[in-house]
């Protein structure tokens, strides 16, 4: 009896399956008159990508497209999770994918698969392999970000008595170690350090002074606490900490506050990428050596990414264009696109105690 | 007993059917063959594969928490070897690493008599830490053999599904139709009794863990190929996913009872759930909570069934919560 | 029992020797390791590891386990962040955290005691439920938390230098040591861990004991959650993920048998200190933190191997006196 039920069930299911297959093709075609754009951040939540998401949602609403937004949770910000999400989208047939890869090389194969199925592929925030996407919606050029960060640290160090006669040890705090944008910044920073202007700023030991604590908040906090313990004025200590992720910059500020005997703020400095709100308190606090932050408008980045993606789907923007024009909040904006396909949002924004209150994100 | 097992698998199958039909009704895309094959089935293969030896291990009352780390270590060393000395070396190193890891687990558990949980907890850190230290937290990329294992279609189906199918048949036969399989149940029910009745418990345990290492090595090819890269932390929670599948399939965590076919159906249930939630555009994080709930419901159902059964037989509590040691 | 205690004393003794050797080694080779700042930040990590490990130790002593602790702490962190955002002060946060911890742990215990589901699978399932429901409730994180929220990490320093978290940890440890030594309840915990059946026969309500143990441990997890959660102005949904393994490792390293019934708090106290200082120690030795997990695994493995080999030796020298040992 039970066997009979089981057999019947399997048959019913098979029938459903085939019926579904046949009916499904027109259904899928019907669905495609609305444009669906899927956006995949490195991870979900946290000020930075939340702000991007708000921008993307605003663009989607203005353009009348459907936006799917999903990403790994912070401690699982890995290529594997991103691929899992992407495969779901690819096989259900979205129109465009906008992704900020955790590992630009590794994700390339999946992105190419998407492109083969006619899905438009863009990257934003961090790039993938160049041949795996059409355009890269870049926040600021890697060179600019690196210089912005280094200059912020340099000025503070100069003010604190370091310079060509007195070298300063610097440490970099990244996150996962495979983010294409962070690695590009690290390379650019290392490049600058070899030039005369910055030669007195030194990374003493790359294996302990370029730190990749991962993306887990608690681990980032611990790594930053250890780093702050190593900071101070001595030659074997660290004088400047530069954080490359919007997670580690506030962690540096917070762990300085939490430190039991704080290293003397008059001999060290800290800076990094972060949304203004996340580090406002530390910047305004004069006893905290976190004095400057570097960023760009995440809202605009999200907006631009979705706008560009939509233009690709509708055919307004072809492959290999040299500029893109879109409307944001009534204003018409034109962005250059270089030969590598970088569509750059603009220059880096450096904020300090004087202007941090002007931003609210 | 026989009858109970059969009906249990039927219940599982019914659960699967219900989930399948419900999701299909809500999202027609789900029924696209492309989706079923390339998302639902293809994405579960690694978990499904490792669940096979894990079922054997759990039946003997053991446990292997290090499977995720082991798989990643295989991929990391294999990928690095392939980059340095070519594909052949990559394949050889992957397999050797898998066997070595399994052997380490097996020897410590069987010879030093340290509990399975403690041993594999420690080796989980050890293997993961080795991948992390060796790669300096960077990625290792796929080489041609791994890519081939992860992305080739044979007779219309991805090759890994064929591999999984073959392995599944082998393991069903191994557990239910060989003397070896019967010995596993004997060890799980009472290890000392099995020993005194002439079963070489130590040797069997070592064999099982080595086998598990080998399957992890095999899965690592597919994993590396499918994602085209791995990082040291890619295997986090993999162990929990595998154990979820095995337990959902009706294998008792205290050992002594279990069914390979149950594991197969459970694999299918988890695959359907995961891909179904994706197709419904429910955030990927929700998968965890649904998976947890399904597991909990299944556990409660077993518990109630077991209690009813033991009451019927008048036997004293057979499902006593005992530590897994 | 007497024999048992003797054996455990030596486990702790060996651990202490190991710890001393490591500390001296660090003093010689890791320049700056003994700076006040570094010691205090290690003590802060140590506090939350030890407080939870004590709870975990009690659970493991009953022969059960809890792998949901990390997810539970994540839930605690998010709940206190939510009320912290509204301006709740430290005492409110602490009490809320303990209550949430107790409730969630009771939820675990319900499945384990009433429904007789083995602890490891029950907590495996609840891990996924805790972790998953968080991501449903909050997208990613709660941020821009006020100064009242971060008071514990930023401002609460005894004599202006010792983190208050460490003071809480010391108080809890002392209470736990006394409790496990003198209370009648602790005897029940050991009895249940040694053999559920004989505990039942001597009139101990096994379910009640296990349930209460989980609830007490839950309160301790809650306290840990406050320390972890208030470390900065942002709380993510994954603050605690993976921590359970560190706690279990501290307990195991401290010589507690995962089979239950044997092991003491003192071992855990030392085990937790070793685990809490690994990351920092190797950075000061000039080694990348990437090797931290490997070293952690190696230390656990070597320590259990050493203690297993000693038992094997003793078994040989005293035939017929096997002792209660994990198998």
C-alpha-based Rg of chain A, rounded: 24 Å
Low-pLDDT parts of chain B are: 314-325
**Span of the ends, CA to CA of chain B:** 26 Å
Shape of chain A: elongated
CATH architecture of chain B: Orthogonal Bundle
Total strands of chain A: 15
Mean pLDDT of chain A: 83
What composes the largest sheet of chain A?
A: 7 strands, mixed
Classify the fold: give the CATH topology of the largest domain in chain A: Rossmann fold
Broad shape of chain B: globular
Main structural class of chain A: alpha/beta
Radius of gyration of chain B from CA coordinates? 20 Å
Name of the CATH class of the largest domain in chain A: Alpha Beta
By CATH, the superfamily of the largest domain in chain A comes out as Response regulator
What CATH first level of chain B would be assigned? Mainly Alpha
For the secondary structure, the number of strands of chain B is: 4
Q: What structural class do the secondary elements of chain B suggest?
A: mainly alpha
CATH topology of chain B: ABC transporter involved in vitamin B12 uptake, BtuC
Counted up, domains of chain B total: 1
What does this protein structure show overall?
The complex is a heterotrimer of chains A (361), B (325) and C (327). Chain A is elongated, with a radius of gyration of 24 Å. In chain A, α2 links the parallel β1 and β2. Chain A is α/β, with parallel strands linked by helices and 361 residues long. In chain A, α5 (142-159) crosses α6 (180-193) and α9 runs parallel beside α10 (276-284). Chain A has helices at 2-31, 47-63, 79-92, 108-116, 142-159, 180-193, 206-209, 217-229, 248-258, 276-284, 298-314, and strands spanning 36-40, 66-69, 96-99, 120-124, 135-138, 168-173, 201-202, 210-211, 240-243, 269-273, 290-295, 323-328, 331-336, 342-344, 349-351. Chain A is built from 11 helices and 15 strands. In chain A, the strands form 3 sheets. In chain A, strands 6, 7, 8, 9, 10, 11 and 15 form a 7-stranded mixed β-sheet that branches. In chain A, strands 2-1-3-4-5-14 form a 6-stranded parallel β-sheet, sandwiched between helices. Chain A has a two-stranded antiparallel ribbon with strand order 12-13. Chain B has a single domain, classed as ABC transporter involved in vitamin B12 uptake, BtuC (Orthogonal Bundle). By secondary structure, chain B is mainly alpha-helical. In chain B, the strands form 2 sheets. Chain B has a two-stranded antiparallel sheet with strand order 1-4. Chain B has a two-stranded antiparallel ribbon with strand order 2-3. Chain C has 327 residues and is mainly alpha-helical. Chain C contains 13 helices and 4 strands. In chain C, the strands form 2 sheets. Chain C has a two-stranded antiparallel ribbon. Chains B and C meet through α6, α12 and α14 of B and α4, α5, α11 and α13 of C.
